[in-house]
Automatic annotation (TrEMBL):
Domain of life: Bacteria
The protein's name: DUF3572 family protein
Length: 93
């Protein structure tokens, strides 16, 4: 698998995990939506898009308390999470 496809696959998987975490924590979901300027319809329409996937990962990467909670609840190491975050923010894959 080419490197860019691997990063995109990791991003999609991680974003799904982030969205699942937010769905279980309504107060955090509301904070994310306010931060992103989204209402519930906009969020529903954006699910699965690369823009939302990047936004979810960036939101968690910039918020250490929920990043650590997500990692603890999902058996993901913070280092692995941040590795994907840094990969999607590189100018080249």
């Amino acid at each position: 698998m080419p490197r860019s496809e691997n990063v995109e696959s990791s991003l999609a998987s991680l974003a799904d995990t982030c969205l699942g975490y937010l769905a279980e924590h309504p107060e955090e979901l509301l904070a994310f939506m306010q931060n992103a300027g989204m209402d519930p319809d906009a969020l529903r329409n954006a699910v699965g898009t690369p823009a939302l996937q990047r936004g979810l990962v960036e939101y968690f990467a910039s918020n250490e308390p929920i990043l650590l909670a997500l990692c603890a609840n999902s058996a993901i190491s913070p280092e692995d999470f941040m590795r994907v975050f840094h990969q999607i923010n590189r100018t080249e894959y």
